[in-house]
Amino acid sequence: MSNIKFSFLALLFLLIVACGQEEKAEIKQSIRPVKYSKVIMSGDALNERFSGTAQSSKESKLSFKVSGTIKRLNVNVGDVVRKEQVVARIDQTDYSIQYQQSVASLKGVETQIKSAETQMINSKATYQRIEKLYENNSVSLSEFEQAKSSYELAQASYDAALAQAKASERQVESAQNQVRYSTLKAPFSGVVTAVMVEENELVGAGTPVAMISAVSEPEISVGIPEVFISKVKKNQAVDIVFSSMPVQAFSGKVYEVGFSTQGGSTYPVTVRIDKPTKDIRPGMAAEVRFDFGLGNVEQKMVVPVAAVGEDSNGNFVFSLQKSGDNYAAQKKTIQVGELSPAGFEVKSGLQNGELVATAGLSTLLDGMTVRLME
Q1: Which of 24, 89, 149, 253 has the CB geometry, 3.0–4.6 Å to 72, for a possible disulfide?
Q2: CA-CA distances (angstroms) from residue 294 to 150, 240, 298, 353?
Q3: d(CA 124, CA 101)
Q4: If we measure between CA atoms, which residue out of 118, 98, 117 comes closest to residue 106?
Q5: Helix ranges (DSSP H) in 136-262
Q6: Alpha-carbon span 73 to 87, nearest angstrom
Q7: Are strands 368-372 and 32-34 parallel, antiparallel or unpaired?
Q8: CATH 1.10.760.10 for domain 31-42+298-372
């Protein structure tokens, strides 16, 4: 009987311990995680970093100037092409026939010119001869006027033939262009980044066939907030780091500064890399550091904007104080100063290095136990 009682008590003890552990686990899980940041000392943005994206300095969508069926497509995505290299051709049979017809028409007009010129020369000679006879009263006025009229008509026919020849020459040139336009060539050396058509596909004039990007001079496109755009100048030196190459830093210069926003809150700025490598490709993420050269400035204590709330007592933050394995959210009234890109200046109420909550201030309570969100 005593053994049975002992086993029962041992089992009861294990159940109590297990329930206690589950309760502790539930309590731990119920502790609210919070986003946080640190109060820092900052100057007036001597150096600022902005995210950017690599792009080609030259990018071109290639298209035919005439319509037709793709007879030959010579490139694939990723191919390296040279300037004037043939990218694609369309069937030029109809354009070649038009060219040959225009050449034949021009030859016919040239024959007409020769005939009209001969007739004009003969008419002119006749007119000059009769004109002298008329001056000597050897021919009648009607004969003189008839010779003059014949000459003027021959002259007009010759001039018309010359005008028709010029029009025919333009037709030949136009038809020749149509034949030339049926061959699509690369306007510069680069890499094929997209191919939009296939062989035997009917395309219209202006339909994109392929896209080529230059690789010799990659650029970085950066969005600069309005508070800094006035400090960005052309040829300003910058430092560049690509997320895919974090150990390698590049230098560069500002190439273009946008005058207006592109529908957002930032201004477009283009940066050229001084000594790019072949590893830099369009679309790569980059971080560009600008040194605005403001000299030595007074260091100020700064708290993130998201950490500052306001109630009837003024501005406040929830300072996160270490409490065992967790933290206690302590509501503190603070006095803030000017707003800068780094946050609000703290004039009183906080210490440098303090941790503060940066999200969900309306749901936090003074003294609430929280844990830091990783």
Answers
A1: 89
A2: 89, 20, 11, 25
A3: 34
A4: 98
A5: 141-181, 226-229
A6: 6
A7: parallel
A8: no
